[in-house]
Design a protein that fits this description.
Elements lengths: L10 H10 L6 E5 L8 E7 L2 E7 L5 E5 L14 E3 L2 E2 L6 E2 L5 E3 L14 E7 L2 E5 L7 H5 L1 H6 L8 E10 L3 H8 L5 H4 L13 E5 L2 E7 L14 H13 L9 H4 L1 E7 L3 E6 L2 E9 L7 E9 L13 E2 L9 H16 L15 H14 L1
The protein binds FE2/S2 (inorganic) cluster and fe (ii) ion.
Fe (ii) ion binds next to helix 8.
Length: about 375
Amino acid sequence: MMSLAARYTSTDWMRREQEGLWPRAWLLVGLSLDVARPGQRMRFDIGTESLIVARDAAGVLRAFFNVCPHRGHRLCSERLGHGRLRCPYHHWQFALSGKLHARPDSDHFTARPDLTPIRCAEAAGLVWVCMDAQAPPLVEWLGPVLSWLLPYQAEAMSLTDEVTLPTAANWKLTLDANNEHYHLHTIHPQLLDMIDDTAVTTERASPHGRMCVPVGVASQRRGGEPAGPERSAAQRIRLKGQGIDVSGLSDAQLVENQMLYVFPNLQLNCYPDRLQIFRHRPHASDPARGYFDRIVLTASADAVPRRKTRHRLLDAKTGSLGAVIDADLVAVRSVQRGLSSRGFQGPCLGASESLIAMMHDVLTEWLG
Ligand code: FES
Ligand SMILES: [Fe+2]
């Protein structure tokens, strides 16, 4: 078995993920609000693959590999677009049903290939794809995650921020940094006035999991005390006053952040009035690089959820995601280098890092 450290550094392991992980799991592509109307489409890149999700003229959501069946040119370069796809190379055109619509000198050809479809589905206002015909349906795959997520009504939220930061770290390292709370008091001490890191609960629902983090109270390391029921009641009144429907949330959910980990590369940070999505994507060829996507949805009294901002691609060297995440990135860059040391024996994981251990157990099961 390959060492856990090598899973973050070796191109051999990266290839195993390309062949046995990304094509087998359900992956979050984007938001339903971006493909709500017929003709809308979006592109999604994961490692060496690029995919397209589109709402066809009949209103059916479809997904395809982003590759032209003529000679293999990438069909679509826009993140978000509208209408028929036209390959830049020889101008073959495809309807969003995936059917070849037109091509120059069509009578020169005997075959009429269409786009190669893949599975797609929506849940909680999010769009997902899976390249594996044998995988279970999305709802079954998500299992308890869906019941944890649904009360927040993400499908009614609007998009208020969407950024991608290229990182000098394997995708699993930025994931790990957000799958444990052990480092909160060490590298994010400023958070201890508003997070009780001593009262976090971690639950495994393999391959997924969650952490429930009390927010709005000081850490017991700082003399804070657990919130009483009056704080939940006050939150409920405040959010209702803003026109936000929190009727599905429990008293505990009103005063905590539920971090839902969806195997392999997704974290849904649920708050009563917003959803902060972290997605960690692999680089196409370098295991020591990755992409960190942060997508923020905010509850509002809007009748229809809307995209209120455009995607931003940050500069790998100068881009910032705020003091907290920047501190994580400094740490993971150092860990990326340390994992290659001959002197490193592999991670020594404690109870508060159990989601990291679980992820590796699942990877062992899937990839050996
Ligand atoms: S490769 Fe797309 S039209 Fe030729
Ligand atoms: Fe952190």
